[in-house]
Amino acid sequence: QIAVRACFLGFAFGCGLLLSTGRSAWRHFGWYMCSLSLFHYSEYLVTAINNPRSLSLDSFLLNHSFEYNLAALSSWVEFTLEKLLFPELKQITWLSTVGLLMVIFGDCLRKAAMLTAGSNFNHIVQNEKSDTHTLVTSGVYGWFRHPSYVGWFYWSIGTQVLLCNPICVVGYALASWRFFRERIEEEEITLIHFFGEEYLEYKRKVPSGLPFIRGVKVEL
């Protein structure tokens, strides 16, 4: 099953590359296909390098959630319909380039966070502290408390800017912001439980990295 998923992502990347390098009107969608397939494949690859004990079929994040799959499907539908009705909207190369840069920045930031955290990184929020758990505050964690979420946030919005999907740009921004706000609060409760005052001091010094998200409130 791992090989099947890897081959599928490789095939999607290859198709995207062909669309990207040709003169097809679907060139920007080719950029999107390359970005999407590379994101999911690298999630598995970096986890295999970083934390092989947590590696599983779910590490590809292809089955992240029903909502995630629905969002992807919605973006494809919007792109196709708008391409048929307003083809000039999908030919704004400078805007698609901005989206591509957002995608590259977001994915690089997320992978840098995963590599910096090492075995401390896990796709699933941990409720029990293991002997190897340490509080990572160096590298990109010195910029943001949650760099992997910041990266994913801008990556997801960037995919829709790349596709020139105005409806999904707004929808992705709102849905991603709400998801990460809840996820960060849940995770920080656990981190405070794990590391106590050490994490609270870190929380005071370093921002979450996401707009208008401060994390869990601590009553003093």
TrEMBL record:
Question: Which Gene3D superfamilies has this protein been placed in?
Answer: 1.20.120.1630
A Pfam match is ICMT
Keyword set includes Lipid biosynthesis: no
Write out the catalysed reaction.
[protein]-C-terminal S-[(2E,6E)-farnesyl]-L-cysteine + S-adenosyl-L-methionine = [protein]-C-terminal S-[(2E,6E)-farnesyl]-L-cysteine methyl ester + S-adenosyl-L-homocysteine
Alphabetically ordered keywords of this record: Endoplasmic reticulum, Membrane, Methyltransferase, S-adenosyl-L-methionine, Transferase, Transmembrane, Transmembrane helix
Q: Where is the protein found, in the record's own terms?
A: Endoplasmic reticulum membrane
Membrane topology per the record?
Answer: Multi-pass membrane protein
Q: What class of enzyme is it?
A: transferase
- Quote the PROSITE patterns the UniProt record gives: SAM_ICMT
| Transmembrane regions listed in the UniProt entry | 152-175
User: What name does this protein carry?
Assistant: Protein-S-isoprenylcysteine O-methyltransferase
Q: Which organism is it from?
A: Anhinga rufa (African darter)
